Q: What sequence folds into this?
């Protein structure tokens, strides 16, 4: 997904949505002249002039929503992202219901590397259900996943990329982005050195195939990846993850142990190793790895999850429930956490809590949960 | 891919040797009763299979194709023809003690037969789940190619010691659910006992909670997590008893009175006399208990509260383990929220 194409698509789709949302306010002749001139310049495709005129017009009338919108969207289209961000910030303050504007604001913030704000605003746009243009949705979802990766929330990013395995072809930038999240590297594709593109794109292709239910093809690519990058951090972790997803916990354990020998402080690998032992029905073996994972990354939701499960499945169900509840707060839409909570509550005799988790789990699996629909 | 035929021959030798586990010498009741159960016959070699023995010639026609299952010497062949060409293969494994599907080998790959035997019609029909397939070639009409990821869990449940190091052990698996299947380490325990060593006892399963048992049995019969994770919802999930049981309002994972084992002894064939389960319900639903007494009847609980449900495409009725008060005209409930 080339960045410029994505950007233009986002801007054009959003323009269509917002012309309806932006009202026209007129204050005095000077403003009328400026606003009319700005509109004429835009319609004549004289973009630099239009930007200057819109800037004059909104200075004269700061309540002119349409002016802020065009000032923002035209600057975004002209790669003037800081200006676009400022104009769109004014616009959403005047019209907070304008979902597409939150999206374009988030995309502008992404370009100026204000990643935290960008993620918040892209997610706000995605939560808005009034838009519905598929093209804009894809752009926003892609940037949400990029931002989650950039901010180190790799598991959430990989989950988001699963949508693309159903809706988008395996194009190079998408695969590189998936590869970055899968190998747990907090960068975006533009930040990848030329000599590392192959590593990330190959890893991303394997994960894309796994997500597309083409596990056998993913096997081949991962074998190739291990041959070419045997000592690269994250590769054996990725292979372990794939083997675990393919219900091969013993092989997964071997790969994850290999990763931890190369990279002993990798809490994601410790998490996944604990998970593999849990899948093998050996929570006692899982417990020390789960503790190590939580020590290494107290905020890693998956680490809390495996620790909660390991405790609940050994003999400390109440502490296990505490960890699982904490993990659930971190990601309320994660089905695995709700399934583990259901089992732990049931084991503890908390029947109404267990039933509530069953209902939630089924809703999440069916996609009828409001959280899941996000 | 694999030389399945040679592996089957080895497997047959192991089975024919009998005495696969001399557990019955000490565990008399379980050791003698369990081999008579359907679970013990969940997978069989054709020569040992009673369904095939009782049906030496089965024929089914559907669309352009005709399938035939028939005896040839000591073995059984599965054939499909479109009138001009025919594929004829030996049946490698028979899966299912009642309804039965066959595993075939074709060009080094394993296939699930496109038709199965169903006792309720005493004949063949399309295999459940494959009825949506529209075979365009003779090979597709023969069967459905099994992905590696499908074969492993298939044998893991229907056979014993089928998987080691994540790979199927075609050379050494033991057909059906035998002692070692549930009691991991039973074989070593038996060997040690013969040497006078008494300390290698398999893990006790009796201490498991109702939740633990549901998950244990659910490894094959499908737990709540398995069905939900796999999104196997709808009337077909009636055959996943641990999942359905867990939807029940009365399911308490810490109370063994609602455990699978409270009603079923896995070492014996399932009891189809519904009245025999009344005391199990009465263990909670009694005058002095917290659970309410039924205002309608004092017996035949399962007849009302565990209804028989037709398995779509399966030619069989299953007892719905979602214990509830059913309402006339209701649709099949698939969530605790809709079933109570």
A:
């Amino acid at each position: 997904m080339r960045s410029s194409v994505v950007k233009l698509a986002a801007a054009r789709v959003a323009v269509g949505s917002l012309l309806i949302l932006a009202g026209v306010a007129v204050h005095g002749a000077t403003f009328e002249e400026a606003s009319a001139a700005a509109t004429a310049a835009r319609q004549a495709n004289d973009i630099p002039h239009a930007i200057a005129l819109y800037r004059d017009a909104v200075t004269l009338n700061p309540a002119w929503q349409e002016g802020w919108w065009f000032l923002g969207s035209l600057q975004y289209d002209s790669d003037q992202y800081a200006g676009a961000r400022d104009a769109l910030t004014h616009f959403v303050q005047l019209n907070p219901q304008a979902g597409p504007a939150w999206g374009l604001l988030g995309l502008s913030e992404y370009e100026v590397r204000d990643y935290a704000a960008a993620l918040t605003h892209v997610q706000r746009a995605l939560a808005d259900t009034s838009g519905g243009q598929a093209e804009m949705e894809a752009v926003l979802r892609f940037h949400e996943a990029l931002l989650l990766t950039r901010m180190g929330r790799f598991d959430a990013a990989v989950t988001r990329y699963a949508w693309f395995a159903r809706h988008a072809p395996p194009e190079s930038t998408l695969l590189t982005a998936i590869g970055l999240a899968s190998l747990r590297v907090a960068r975006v594709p533009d930040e990848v050195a030329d000599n590392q593109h192959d590593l990330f794109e190959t890893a991303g292709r394997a994960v894309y195939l796994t997500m597309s239910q083409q596990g056998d093809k993913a096997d081949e690519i991962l074998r190739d990846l291990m041959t070419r990058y045997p000592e690269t951090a994250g590769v054996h972790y990725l292979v372990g993850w794939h083997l675990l997803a393919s219900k091969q916990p013993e092989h997964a354990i071997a790969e994850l142990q290999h990763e931890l020998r190369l990279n002993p402080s990798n809490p994601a690998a410790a998490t996944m190793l604990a998970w593999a032992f849990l899948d093998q029905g050996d929570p006692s073996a899982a417990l020390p790895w789960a503790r190590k994972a939580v020590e290494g990354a107290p905020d890693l939701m998956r680490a809390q999850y495996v620790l909660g499960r390991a405790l609940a499945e050994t003999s400390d169900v109440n502490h296990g429930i505490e960890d699982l509840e904490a993990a659930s707060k971190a990601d309320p839409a994660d089905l695995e956490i709700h399934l583990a909570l259901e089992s732990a509550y049931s084991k503890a005799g908390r029947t109404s809590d267990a039933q509530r988790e069953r209902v939630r789990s089924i809703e999440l699996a069916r996609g009828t949960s409001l959280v899941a629909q996000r | 891919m694999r030389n399945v035929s040679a592996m089957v021959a080895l497997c047959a030798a192991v089975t024919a040797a009998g005495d696969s586990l001399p557990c019955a010498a000490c565990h008399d009741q379980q050791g003698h009763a369990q081999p008579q159960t359907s679970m013990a016959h969940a997978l069989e070699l054709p020569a040992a299979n009673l369904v095939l023995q009782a049906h030496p010639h089965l024929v089914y026609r559907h669309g352009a194709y005709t399938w035939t299952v028939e005896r040839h010497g000591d073995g059984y062949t599965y054939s499909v023809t479109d009138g001009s060409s025919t594929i004829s293969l030996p049946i490698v494994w028979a899966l299912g003690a009642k309804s039965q599907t066959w595993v075939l080998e074709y060009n080094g790959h394993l296939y699930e037969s496109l038709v199965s035997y169903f006792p309720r019609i005493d004949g063949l029909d399309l295999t459940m789940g494959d009825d949506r397939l529209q075979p365009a070639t003779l090979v597709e009409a023969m069967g459905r190619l099994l992905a590696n990821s499908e074969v492993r869990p298939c044998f893991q449940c229907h056979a014993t010691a089928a998987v080691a190091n994540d790979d199927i052990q075609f050379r050494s698996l033991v057909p059906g659910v035998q002692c070692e299947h549930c009691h991991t380490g039973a074989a070593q325990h038996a060997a040690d006992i013969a040497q006078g060593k008494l300390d290698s006892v398999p893990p006790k399963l009796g201490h498991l909670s109702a939740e633990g048992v549901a998950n244990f049995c659910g490894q094959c019969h499908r737990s709540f997590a398995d069905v939900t994770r796999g999104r196997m919802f709808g009337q077909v999930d009636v055959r996943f008893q641990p999942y359905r049981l867990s939807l029940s309002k009365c399911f308490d994972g810490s109370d063994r009175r609602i455990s699978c084992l409270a009603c079923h002894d896995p070492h014996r064939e399932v009891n189809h006399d519904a009245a025999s389960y009344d005391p199990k319900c009465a263990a909670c639903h009694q005058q002095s208990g917290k659970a309410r007494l039924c205002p309608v009847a004092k017996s035949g609980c399962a007849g009302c509260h565990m209804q028989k449900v037709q398995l779509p495409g399966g030619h069989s009725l299953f007892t719905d383990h979602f214990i509830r008060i059913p309402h006339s005209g209701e649709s099949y409930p698939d969530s605790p929220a809709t079933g109570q």
Summary: The CA atoms of residues 63 and 82 of chain B lie 9 Å apart.
